[in-house]
Each structure stands twice: as structure tokens, then as C-alpha cells.
Specification:
This protein has 23 helices and no strands. By secondary structure, the protein is an all-alpha fold. α19 packs across α22. It starts with a helix and ends with a helix.
Length: 425
């Protein structure tokens, strides 16, 4: 009997020791899970800051490929863009991508920044993206051989066209390139063709159809039918192109159609392209007075985009500004603290990478222990606690693996180091 009591006492003492050990393990693993959660949050923060800076850096380097400037000079340009962009509710990265389009068009340095500023105003006023606005602005500047200081005026005319017509800044900006590429070399003025678009879209014709119609009308004057060529010659011009270069598109169209009316010549005989007729009939006949008024208004468009921009500064715009400012803060953190982040990542990776390599084996072991031996040994509440901690360890291993994988994506050269805290654990 005494032997049984002694065995029971020994067993209870051993069980008590095991329970105490389990308690210590529970505390250690709980702290380890806290470390894992901190690492996960750190990883997300690093990704956000470094990712924001990496995107901007890539965009700026793309611009750099178009210049002969040094990287230090480009960084100054980049900082100027980053200071400017949030005022218009966009990130420095978005603005830099637009700057690439501007540099591609031949407007670089101070000229490029001037064009970018005008495009930012136009985009904010017209609720479109700055890349689209910059693309349209530079296309028009180049087509009509304008200098960079005319960029604001170009956006004023575009916005006045939106104001007068039934179109949007985005629709107009994305389609007008197909028109001015033909209009400018053939003598049709910028204000004339944009006024035509305002008039036609107000009649219910879509922006894209209006662009095509005006384009074809200009082409038909430059490459006239036999009947139209006779009319142009009768009016004293060698060609339709010469006529438009001297008079402009609007007056040339008016003279040709007036002559046709006086001599009973059908417009369908002069303009055989059905798309051209879609523009000629309203502009030269039924809506001629409206077209003249639109040209008058567009000729006085200066300041239109800036006035519209001021009207857009409501709650939605302010929220976009705040969002853009937070993005720039993240970009700045990614840039300013990148050396320290690199050092920290090297320490973390060199320490936890060995643990990550044994991740699969570790998970198998703790899963087995959690569901069999330990659960049976402690039972009840103690078993559930240990099982929960083991499950947490499995989650932690997953977290560590995810951190390691994300670190590898940064392509950072990692030096061998030791992290004392994890070593103690």
C-alpha cells in the first residue's frame, strides 16, 4: 500500500512539474505570437512605404531615359513634381507618369513643368486623369507649333469647348488628337475645330463622331471632288488647302457653301463622304449662327480652366488631396528611411530564414503534439490552452514565411547577422 502511495506522490510531483513547464511554454509562445504579429505589421508598413517610393522612383527613372541630365538633376525635377501633385489631388507617381508623356513630346525641364502644371489644372477642372490631359495638351502644342507657355491657353480652349458643347474633358482629350493631326497642317485653326466640336456635340452628335465628321470635312476641302475643285478655282484659289491656309476652315467652308447655294450646286455633290456631310450641313447651314457664336466664345477662353478648377474644390476634391498627401508621406518615408529599413531587413531575414526553412517540419510536429500527446497528457482546459498556443505557433510560422517571401521580393542583399531577441526565444 505504501508503495502505491509513493508512486502516486511521485506521479503527482511529475505532473506538477510538467504543468509548470507547460505554463512557462505557454507564456513564451504567447510572447512569440506577439512578435509574429509585430513582424507582420512591420512587413505591411515596409511594403506600403517602400512600395510607394519604388513606384515613384521607377516613374522618374523612366523620364530620365528621355534626357541627358544627371540623376541628381532628375531628383530635383522629381521633388518639384511631388510638391506640386498633391495640390491637385493626385500622387507624385501619377504626375511623373504624365511628365513622361510631356518629355516624350519634346517639352523638358522648366518647359515640361509648365506644361504639367497646365495639364494638372485641366485634369482637375475637367475631372479626368492628368496623363490624358497631358497627352492632349502636348499633341495640340506640337500640331500647331506652340511653345510651352501656351499650354494653359490650350487647356482653356478645351474646357471652353466642354462648357459650350455636350462632351466631357476626358472624351475630348482622348479623341482630339485624331483631328488636330490633320487640321493643323491643312490650315484649320485650333479654335475653329474645337468650336465645331462644341456645335456638333450640342446637336446630339457624339464626341467621337463629331471628331470624325470635322476631320473628313477638312480632308474633303483639301482633296476636293471635281465639283468642289471647280468651286474653289472659281473663288480664286489654287487649292482647298491654300484656301484654308488663307481663310481658315470656317470661312473657307462658308464661302464654298455660299457659292454652291448661289449656283444651285447640291452640297452632296461637293461633299461625297457621308461623315463629312454630318459636319458640313450643320456648320454651314442650320447651325451656322451657333457655330459663329461658339468661335467667338472660344476665342475668349483665357482663364476658363482655372475658373472651373476653383469651382471643383469641394469635399470630394479635398479628400483626394488628403489621400494624395498621405501617399506622399509614405513615399518620403520609403525614401528617407530606406537605408535603415535595408539594415533592419537584413537582420530580420538572416535570423528567421533558418526558421522558415524548417517551417513544414515544425508545423507537422506541433500539429501532431497538439492533437495527440499533449492533449491527452493535460486534458480539459490545459489541453485546450496548449492546443491553442500550438495553433498560434503554426500561424506564426505562416507569418514568418510570408515575411521572408516579401523580403525576397525586395531583392535586398542580405548580410549575415544575429537577432538576439529571437535567439533567446
Amino acid at each position: 500500500m505504501s508503495g502505491i502511495k509513493q508512486a502516486e506522490s511521485t506521479f503527482r510531483s511529475g505532473a506538477s512539474s510538467i504543468t509548470a513547464s507547460a505554463s512557462r511554454i505557454t507564456g513564451s509562445l504567447t510572447r512569440l505570437i506577439g512578435v509574429g504579429a509585430g513582424l507582420y505589421a512591420l512587413k505591411r508598413g515596409i511594403q506600403s512605404a517602400v512600395g510607394a517610393f519604388a513606384s515613384f522612383d521607377e516613374a522618374l527613372r523612366n523620364v530620365w531615359t528621355l534626357t541627358g541630365e544627371t540623376w541628381e538633376q532628375m531628383q530635383k525635377v522629381g521633388q518639384e513634381v511631388r510638391d506640386l501633385a498633391p495640390k491637385f489631388g493626385i500622387t507624385g507617381t501619377e504626375a511623373t507618369k504624365a511628365l513622361y508623356q510631356i518629355y516624350s513630346a519634346g517639352y523638358k525641364g522648366a518647359e515640361g513643368i509648365e506644361v504639367l502644371k497646365a495639364s494638372l489644372v485641366g485634369a482637375a477642372a475637367g475631372l479626368t486623369d492628368v496623363f490624358t490631359a497631358a497627352d492632349a495638351t502636348t499633341s495640340i502644342l506640337n500640331a500647331y507649333k506652340m511653345s510651352a507657355d501656351k499650354a494653359s491657353y490650350v487647356n482653356d480652349v478645351l474646357f471652353k469647348t466642354v462648357e459650350r458643347g455636350k462632351t466631357t474633358f476626358g472624351e475630348l482629350s482622348s479623341s482630339i488628337g485624331r483631328l488636330i493631326g490633320i487640321a493643323a497642317p491643312l490650315g484649320a485653326g485650333f479654335e475653329e475645330v474645337t468650336a465645331a466640336l462644341a456645335t456638333l456635340t450640342r446637336q446630339g452628335i457624339s464626341t467621337d463622331e463629331a471628331v470624325t465628321a470635322v476631320r473628313q470635312a477638312i480632308v474633303q476641302l483639301a482633296r476636293p471632288t471635281e465639283e468642289t475643285a471647280k468651286v474653289i478655282e472659281a473663288l480664286g484659289y489654287e487649292s482647298g488647302t491654300a484656301m484654308m491656309e488663307e481663310l481658315g476652315f470656317a470661312e473657307a467652308l462658308a464661302k464654298v457653301t455660299d457659292y454652291a447655294k448661289e449656283h444651285n450646286i447640291a452640297l452632296s455633290d461637293m461633299f461625297t463622304n457621308i461623315r463629312a456631310v454630318l459636319a458640313v450641313l450643320p456648320l454651314a447651314t442650320t447651325s451656322a449662327d451657333e457655330y459663329a457664336e461658339d468661335m467667338k466664345e472660344i476665342a475668349n477662353a483665357t482663364g476658363a480652366a482655372a475658373r472651373a478648377f476653383e469651382k471643383q474644390k469641394g469635399l470630394a476634391f479635398q479628400l483626394r488631396q488628403i489621400k494624395a498627401q498621405f501617399s506622399e508621406i509614405a513615399t518620403t518615408l520609403g525614401e528617407e528611411f530606406l537605408p535603415e529599413i535595408n539594415r533592419m531587413l537584413r537582420v530580420v531575414q538572416s535570423t528567421i530564414e533558418p526558421l522558415s526553412k524548417m517551417g513544414s517540419a515544425l508545423k507537422d510536429i506541433v500539429t501532431l503534439l497538439g492533437t495527440t500527446s499533449l492533449g491527452a497528457l493535460f486534458g480539459g482546459t490545459s489541453g485546450a490552452a496548449v492546443g491553442g498556443i500550438i495553433g498560434g505557433l503554426i500561424v506564426l510560422v505562416d507569418m514568418i514565411q510570408e515575411v521572408v517571401n516579401s523580403l525576397k521580393e525586395t531583392n535586398i542583399e542580405v548580410a549575415p547577422c544575429k537577432l538576439k531577441m529571437l535567439k533567446r526565444l
